[in-house]
Write a structure and sequence with these properties.
It is built from three helices and 17 strands. With about 280 residues, it is mostly beta strands. The chain has one domain. A hairpin with a 4-residue loop joins strand 1 and strand 2. Helix 2 packs antiparallel against helix 3. It is globular. The two termini are about 30 Å apart.
């Protein structure tokens, strides 16, 4: 029996407190574990939890997120999203977010693990109005190398759209050796991470260059220096991408860069969610 889960999140600025208020509705096994305010009322930290612990063929998980003017939300998860092997049906995770002008979103879930013989789709859509800004990342690991369970069959499709101009789509198949092991693909690695800072309108040149220089400096001094790089694929997006044999060094690099970027872009010290340390 397939599981179908949906969660609607509505973040609004609260004039009474000067902070951010969350209203939500859920259908099926997808919930808000906790909303916390470790930085004060301005920023709502939300932890999403999927009690089944993973998805198999036929399962769907949908998140619909709205962020109003002046609201600031950081959304994360307590553990990895897992796509398990399937007899043929596809599993789907879909995230649709709309951020109003003056809103700030941080979409920072922990990694996605794709087991061998899974058939999985991951669709992310972030619509940013002029004046809206966001941080986000997508961290993917294929197979379970620590358990000697490589990704040799099945496929994973990703579809990520951020802002009005950046959109990427891809498919990784377990039997595509040229992609998985070739120098123009995964190059033998099995973990891939992408961090981005995006805005609803073009970034000022000096701001974009500062973000790029900061990311390149952090990556250049990191253990992943030879497999990481920062670019600005569009005028309103700056990205950092990294490959590694396992997910831990990828998350470490992305977290270090997010911390520095948050201070640089928003003059706000990074406050890592407590759930990342549990």
């Amino acid at each position: 029996m397939a599981w179908h889960a949906r969660l609607n999140l509505d973040y609004r600025a609260d004039p009474a407190t000067g902070g951010t208020r969350l209203d939500f509705r859920h259908d099926g096994p997808l919930r808000i574990l906790k909303s916390l305010f470790p930085e004060g009322p301005e920023v709502c930290h939300s932890v999403l939890v999927h009690p089944p612990g993973g998805m198999v063929g036929g399962d769907t998980v949908e998140v619909d997120l709205r962020l109003g003017t002046g609201a600031h939300a950081l959304v994360t998860t307590p553990g990895a999203t897992r796509f398990y092997r399937s007899a043929g049906e596809r599993a789907l995770q879909s995230v649709q977010a709309r951020v109003a002008g003056g809103g700030r979103l941080e979409w920072l879930p922990l990694e996605t693990l794709v087991h061998s013989r899974a058939h999985a789709d991951n669709r992310l859509r972030f619509e940013l109005e002029p004046g809206a800004e966001m941080f986000g990342w997508d961290v993917l690991a294929l197979g379970l190398p620590a358990s000697d369970a490589p990704f040799v069959a099945g496929d994973y499709r990703h579809d990520i759209a951020v802002g009005p101009r950046w959109w990427e789509r891809g498919r990784t198949s377990g039997d595509d050796a040229a992609l998985l092991d070739g120098p123009c693909g995964w190059a033998g690695h099995r973990a891939l991470g992408t961090l981005w800072f995006a805005a609803g309108s073009p970034l000022a040149d000096d701001r974009r260059e500062q973000l790029l220089e900061t990311a390149r400096g952090i990556a250049g001094a990191h253990a992943l220096a030879t497999t990481a790089g920062a670019t600005a694929p569009q005028a309103d997006v700056v990205t950092l991408r990294a490959l590694a044999p396992r997910v831990e060094p990828v998350l470490d690099l992305l977290t270090r860069t997010w911390r520095a970027w948050r201070t640089l872009a928003w003059a706000r010290d990074a406050c890592a969610p407590r759930v990342w340390r549990t």
